[in-house]
Amino acid sequence: MFTPDPIPRPTGPPASSTPLGDYLNQSPPGSSSGYAVLPRSLAEAMPLPWQHQMRNLLAEFHQAFGHVQWPVYRVVPSRYEQLANLDDDQLAEVGCTVEVGDDGELEYRMRDGRRIDDPEALQVLVSCLDPIPPRGARPPAAPPPPPAW
């Protein structure tokens, strides 16, 4: 009735006790060290069965954490840029200034006055236009074909 053979063990690494954290640590699109953002237009464009599952997961999540004082989040699409490539508005956004030093070279400074020694090597987040179209928006028109000569 019972086999004397040992039960085969699964191959591969053991299952993680933090699978979501493991996935988000890989830096998939829309994630950072503190947040995971789902563009609403893409979530609502998912196939209907996915939307049902997502709705149920979010409902359970909000039920479990409904007691938390949730702030209102403002999500701003951003991209990394070299500090030296920013214009004045972008520099102000990241809290930096640039001025011409005594030697005629540009000097980049933080808001508190600290000098930034290598602005070409410093990557900062600056806001950008959202590349994901809002729900119901038409995709941009294709460029016209080049003229035939």
Automatic annotation (TrEMBL):
Protein origin, superkingdom: Bacteria
Composition-biased stretches (Pro residues): 1-13
Ranges of biased composition (kind: Polar residues): 15-32
Chain segments carrying region Disordered: 1-32
Protein name: Uncharacterized protein
